[in-house]
Amino acid sequence: MKRVLGINGSPRRGGNSDILLQSVLSGAAEAGAETEEVHLRDYRFRGCIGCERCRKDEQCTGLMDDMQLVYPRIRRACGLVLVSPVYSYSVTALMKAFIDRLYPFYHFESQRPGPWHTRIGEQGRKSVIVAVGEQHSPEEGGMHLTVEVMRRSMDALGFGVVGEIPVFGIFERGKVREYPEILEQARDAGRHLGLQLQDG
């Protein structure tokens, strides 16, 4: 079964990020994928503390929190959807903490710095990233930086990015519902993602 996991980094419940994530996942479902949502605001977890125990243990053993509930879902997923509003020229603190906690999925050689690779790459995994902000240009509020943070993180993890959706000029809660063309773009991205995936 093709599994797509949506990760929402917005602390605001019922906002534009929630709506955009649901649109992407509905498109993925239309393409035959089983979908699941993770709203990071509902989980109690800390940012990475740099203990590096995961380099030896191959899993996060330094922090036993709600990320332990998310890790198995990432391993099962062949598709990931990351959604974040733009906060201070980047992703939200929730999304940044989530990305940092992906460290256990990487294998590092002993030399520092040295070669590394993702433990879950080369398996046909794909991703879609969505960023939404009130600014009207990529550079004005950091939309381009927000997208790049998520893109680089997904590429490194082994989920090749097959869709990027920067949404400009929207802030009020739920305002994106007034833009059906944006929601259709999100659904299209989800359908494209679902069609790119292989059954897991």
Radius of gyration: 16 Å
CATH architecture: 3-Layer(aba) Sandwich
What's the domain count?
1
Structural class: alpha/beta
Task: Note the run of SSEs as H and E.
Answer: EHEHHEHEEEHEH
Let me know the average pLDDT.
95
Helix content: 25-40%
Provide the CATH top-level class: Alpha Beta
CATH topology: Rossmann fold
Q: Estimate the strand proportion.
A: 15-25%
How many DSSP E strands?
A: 7
So what's the overall shape?
globular
User: What does the main sheet amount to?
Assistant: 5 strands, parallel
Uncertain ranges: none
Q: Mind telling me the CATH superfamily name?
A: Flavodoxin domain
Terminal-residue CA separation: 5 Å
Count of individual helical segments? 6
List the main descriptive attributes of the protein structure presented here.
single chain, alpha/beta, Rossmann fold, 5-stranded parallel β-sheet, two-stranded antiparallel sheet
